[in-house]
Each structure stands twice: as structure tokens, then as C-alpha cells.
Amino acid sequence: MRPFPITLLCALMIAAQLLELRGAFYASFQHPVRALWTSVLIAATLASFVGLWRMRRWGVYLYLGLYAASVAAFYAFPPPEAAMLDQPLLMLLVPAVYCAVALPYWKRLD
């Protein structure tokens, strides 16, 4: 049985990623390479949420690895409208919440 906090986290994060995918589609007309990179990251992130939904540890590893790669790419190649560079602590909010929800159930993950 999946704990309710993990169910809620996965549902919210999947919805957010689908909305971001929609935004990447619209951005593809202006920046096709960035939109392709974003789409690949979103697809892999959705896979990580499916892993967490199925209570698998690889989902947590995949999410944290993808997050680190996307932050590195963001700082290496910042988009012109990168307001997050002004407040880097906001970039840590989402993975902090993710870890706060997922890690207490670490022993229950396969």
C-alpha cells in the first residue's frame, strides 16, 4: 500500500510536469533545441515519478540525478528570462519537499 503523502506528491508533480510539457511545446517554435532538451528531461522526470508511484528506489535516484543535471544545465546555459538565478534557494524548494516526503518511507521502497 502506497502512503498518502507519496500519492499526493506524485499526483502534484505529474500534473506540474504535464503543464511544463505544454509550455515546452509552445516554446519549441522559438527555441527548438531548448524545447527538445526540456521535453527529454520532462519525460525522464515523469518516469521517475512513476518509479516513486510504484514505490521503487530508482525513482528517487532518477529524480535527484535529473534535478542535479537540469540545475547544472540551467546555470551553464541560462535562458534569457532566467529570474531564478536571482534567488537560488527557490531552486532547492522542490527537491527539499520531495525528499521530505519520500525519504521517511525509504525502507518501504523496493
Uncertain parts: none
The overall strand count is 0
The value of Rg in angstroms is 15 Å
Overall pLDDT confidence: 84
Number of helices: 5
Percent of sequence in beta strands: under 5%
Instruction: Please write the string of helix (H) and strand (E) elements.
Output: HHHHH
Total domain count? 1
Major sheet characteristics: none
> Which term fits the overall shape?
globular
Structural class: mainly alpha
Measured between the Cα atoms of the first and last residue, the distance is: 12 Å
Helix content: over 70%
Description:
- This protein has 110 residues and is mainly α.
- The protein has one domain (4-108).
- The chain has five helices and no strands.
- The longest helix is centred in the N-terminal third of the chain and has 24 residues, at 4-27.
Please name the defining characteristics of this protein.
110 residues; mainly alpha; globular
Write a brief caption for the model.
The protein is mostly helical.
What's the structural blueprint in terms of helices and strands?
Blueprint: H1 4-27, H2 32-53, H3 57-76, H4 88-91, H5 93-102
Helix pairs in contact: 1-2, 2-3
